[in-house]
Amino acid sequence: MTDTQRSSHEARVEVHELPFARSSNAAARALLATFLDRQRLDTAVLMDASIVLGELVANGLDHGCPDPHDGLEVSWRLDGGELSLSVLDGGGETVPHVLTVDQYAPRGRGLAMVQKLATSWTVDTSGGTRVTAVLPLPQTAP
Amino acid sequence: MDAQTYSSSFDEATSLLTVRGDIDEAGGVTLRDELTKYTRDFERSIRVDLSEVDYFPSLAVGVFATARRKADKAGVELGLVAAEGSVAQRVLTVCGLEHETA
């Protein structure tokens, strides 16, 4: 299930429904890479976006349950100077939050990484759990 | 950017473990076992070159954080090397894990 739209003000959006499975992490990052390649974005943006998406997908699989389509929805939106990355699962027991961990902690760094790489991130639990992170894009030369 | 299978090679002469590919769930387990094996259960110091790793998630950071705790406790060194511009260098910097940029 893939949907690409281009609205009048040049926003580019892609939505993908993936299986609720570990393999979807690499699949989501591959789809995002293809999308960003087409937009001819800087490789540094691609690197950060891939890191962030990987953490959001891993969190959805670790803490959420499958959505009503028995999967996990990933989407991105490129609009002006921003790239939004969003992952929607069927909801979980907890609301995603940033943990403070010491340097030896075996886990718990995912959202802290997202917070550092993104300009902002939000959680919407109105229908499942949707976490959206917004990444800045380098300004293109005039 | 399809999934790149984890692979590694160890140079006994220099005690350098070079890791490539994706450190995903499966790769993370292999990496953890290899760190134990090549440090001889944290009895000798090694360095790990992560410059050619394609995917370095928080899970991978956790593997190194746990291993470094064991290394510090045992009094051996677990040196991490990540070239400037590599994914590992970006993630290790963001997470504040000590490493050298080669």
Structural overview:
The complex is a heterodimer of chains A (142) and B (102). Chain A has helices spanning 23-38, 43-63, 110-117; strands spanning 2-6, 12-19, 71-79, 82-89, 120-124, 129-136. Chain A has 142 residues and is α+β, with helices and mostly antiparallel strands. Chain A has a single domain (2-136), classed as Histidine kinase-like ATPase, C-terminal domain (Heat Shock Protein 90). In chain A, strands 1-2-3-4-6-5 form a 6-stranded antiparallel β-sheet, with helices on one face. In chain A, 34% of the residues are buried. Chain B is of the alpha/beta class. Chain B is 39% helix and 25% strand. Chain B is built from 3 helices and 4 strands; from the N terminus they run E-E-H-E-H-E-H. A 4-stranded mixed β-sheet of chain B has the order 1-2-3-4. The model of chain B has no long low-confidence stretch (mean pLDDT 95). Chain A binds chain B through residues 22-23, 25-26, 29-30, 33, 47-48, 50-51, 54-55, 58, 103-110, 112-113, 116-117, and chain B through 1-3, 22, 24-25, 55-59, 61-63, 65-66, 68-69, 72, 87, 90-91, 94-97.
List keywords for this structure.
heterodimer; A: 142 residues; alpha+beta; Heat Shock Protein 90; 32% helix; B: alpha/beta; 3 helices; 4 strands
